[in-house]
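Hey Z.,

So I finally got round to the alpha-D-glucopyranose thing we talked about over coffee. Here's the setup:
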Amino acid sequence: MSQTEELPAIPQPAAPARFEEATHASSGGTQWWRRSVIYQIYPRSFRDTTGNGIGDLRGITTELHQIASLGVDAIWLSPFFASPQKDAGYDVSDYRAVDPLFGTLGDFDELIAEANRLEVKILVDIVPNHCSDQHALFREALASPAGSAAREMFIFRDGLGDGGQLPPNNWQSHFGGSAWTRIHEPDGTEGQYYLHLFDSSQPDFNWDNPAVGDEFASVLRFWLDRGAGGFRVDVAHALVKASGLPDWHGRADGADTPGYPFADAPMFGQPAVHEVFRRWRAICEEYPGERVLCAEANVHPIEAMADWVRPDEMHQSFNFPFLHTDWDAAALKAIITRSLKAFDAVGAPSTWVLSNHDVPRHATRLGAPSPALRPGDGLGPGDAQPDPVLGLARARAATLFMLGLPGGAYLYQGEELGLGDHTELPHEYRQDPTYARTDGERLGRDGCRVPLPWNDSTRSLGFSDADTGWLPQPEGWESLTRQAQESDPDSTLNLYRKALELRGSHHLGLGNLNWLEDTIGGQLLGFGNSGVLVLLNLGSTPVDVPAGEVLLASSATALGAAPAGTGSLVLNPDAALWLRPPTA
Ligand code: GLC
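And the result:
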């Protein structure tokens, strides 16, 4: 059955749905960010208007109406600031400038004007933990003596052992290798080390120094004054480090700890970091229009993450535990219940996310042979390849299920086209620093960052006039272009459109959740929210659908007929459904 054609009233001799007694609230209040759908644009892969193979701000302005028409509230714009691009722009050399690769400040202003016209907010991705080693402040620190005010903007320390040959502590970089790099002092001698939790080109700021806080307060105002709707805050858990920088035996790259349980790490989740965001919240509140802060706070457990969204701190925090949950009904139910409880306890909405620019896309993850693909690592040509049909079916079902949940949702560009990763990207194209820093042991994140396919007008599928973008697109994307999906009622694009429209008209984002009692042996997950029953079949056999009117199914083959004569329906495996139960 198509998800868009007119659906007849279905005879439903099936039993009515019965719910558990407990109700799980999303949060109080009706502000836009409590129910928002925020779409992540990764500029370099969105749309190129200059023919250099790299997406740009003008490309975003040109195509923004297509994203707005999906029914999203805001765009989270990954970094477009001046940057040597060692970590795809998360290495910023000037926080108040647009990198020429992406355009000019004038282009940003035009983007804001178009966004205002379309009533979509633009959230700027701010990177406060570290900058680029090409930033003027870091250049000045290198040129200044140990102990100088310029060095105090960063985390410089003397080395240990004879002649300082050993780094100041045992911390590992998130991208592999030591988190310390030794410099040459201005006189040419080997000198101090600086801390970089990420690549050596990304020195960490010293947030114990009030001058760092003042600099960022000014940067926030710069973008708020230009019309930014708020900020996505990069690595918001890491700004403040434990005093004395004690050794830690976990790995900052998460390699031994799937799911990133960073509890107790001296470089993450330090109490003083919350003062930073209290100040930022107060700055946002100086401006009209409910400007927001969204935290990338990768801390565990989720109750700890909720500290980032207490009433005087940020508005939202990405729910990574949800993203990392396996395709398992009990596990999903547990994390959703726990998330709603944890965030509601601090008066914040829970958020939900399935894909972003740092993890394999969910159409790949959910079809991959091993469900335990590690965050930060895509698949490569030497790996067992995912099943694209299974991956897409589950991805569509997972999205429909997610968009039924109360709270805020995040979408990553291209997931509305059903895109998976480029899982056979030849190694010579890899640009993620993880790949080089681990000598190829970890493939990194390039596979989920491939330029979008728009139409059949050019060899790069409308992304660029160049034949290929900065990363090549995989085989088979011709049939997944936005243009190809536009008029197909069963396309993934039209599933997203319809789901977002119904999510809005039924006010699902502001609702409460009641779990369906029956899980049919643990394979069905269902909940009621605002008069809509949301069902997801994670098992291997069809399940009976309770009485109700079908609003939307995750695919044309999601529903089947129950055994002859019963007149009711079944929900097939790897499929989801929105249903309106009969009113009593
Ligand atoms: C965040 C970004 C990631 C980046 C890292 C360092 O995790 O999402 O892409 O590499 O921070 O800035």
